[in-house]
Amino acid sequence: MFSQISFFKINDQKGQVLAEILVAVVLAGIIIGGIAISTGTSVATSSKIRENTIATNIIQSAVEKVKILSEQSWIKIYCPPLGSCPGSKGSSNLYYIDDNFQIQNGQTSQVVDGVTYNYYFYIDNVNRDASGNITTSGGTEDPSTQKVTVVVSWANNSISMSEYIMRLTSQSIVDFNWRPELVSSNVFTNSLGYYAATSGTLLFQNGTITLTPSGSGSLTSVIFDTQQANGVAFNSIRWKGSLPTSSHVRFQFASSNSTSSFSFIGPDGTSATYYEAAGPDQIIPLSVIYHNNQRYFQYKVYLDPTTDNSAAPTINKIIINYSY
Amino acid sequence: MKKYFKQKGFSLLPTVLVTSIIVAEVGIALSFVMYMANSASFASRLLQESYLCAKSAMSDAYLRIIRNKDFSAASGYNITLGRCTANVVVQKDVPAQYATTITVTATVLNRKKTLQGIVSIDPDNGTALMYSLQEL
Question: What does each C-alpha distance from A289 to A140, A144, A268 come to in angstroms?
Fold first, then answer.
């Protein structure tokens, strides 16, 4: 009896061990299986992290190249790929910058750690509203602002980032100290007191220009050369002097890539309108879209006396600002 | 005989359980580290986006000063570039006369990048030159 009881107990104990082994194996299988999946995911994630970081670096490098090129020659970015306007823009026109710093059509690739990254950029025009704010709808094209988007793709992944690139040089030509005897149709790179023509009752007084207040008059400047072969964007005009109440100083501006073709126009691009500031030393923004990528310029300033013809404005300096 | 079987059976299960717990702990730690690394990588990408956005906004303010030496926006204005929004503050005659300070804070999701530039302005001819640019 004892041995029978003992036998059953032993059998019973054996059964428990087997069950425990089975439970242990199942538990281990579940846990180790989960860990294996987790580890596999971790390895895959690690690889993806590395690839994302490399792709981000490629974007940074590509954007910097575009920026450097824009500083060397804005027109190549404004009119890609060759700098012949209007060029081809939008997301269907893919470019890259080669080792010679030239824009090429299509995309290029870079292999890092055995992974091939294809990348390209495209360029979009940017509009601004009347206040100068960048806008995605409406507004007027700003030829000194472009949106560059770089796209990097590899395997089944893709990243894109954008940056606004702008024409950020600042130059000026200051015209002053006019002399009545210095009439010229030549081209000047800075002010030497020359002018091209006058009309009406315009007067020269000690290097300034003014009027005999009985009537109006105008002065046409000489042709100025910015010496930028690819042209510039003319930003603003400003004058210094005095403006008696009810008198006027107005401007029309002409720009060209030749020294023989000038049309004086106002803010709307026609000869019917004029640029005018409320007073001296105030910025008059030029309509850049009409004076973009041009090398030469002339201005025409119109002076009107007070309504009772008792006084006239006086100008001692005219300043033209531009970017290239 | 009875004791022998009992000990054998009970020593295997705890061993497997303890080992599994250790492996599980390592796995969970590994997963957590990878999650953190993944987050860091994503944050790095967001920072890159915010950096490009901040540079865009800085250029915008600089261009406005080039076009108008008197340009000022003390209360700030916003520029949007994709999912990034940059706030631009332009303070005229700060830190000195004939200088303008531009402060840009670009935000992508919860990542921020702040740049500050100082532009000197020639009061006579109106030309502008950025002579300082730093990340805050």
Answer: 8, 9, 10
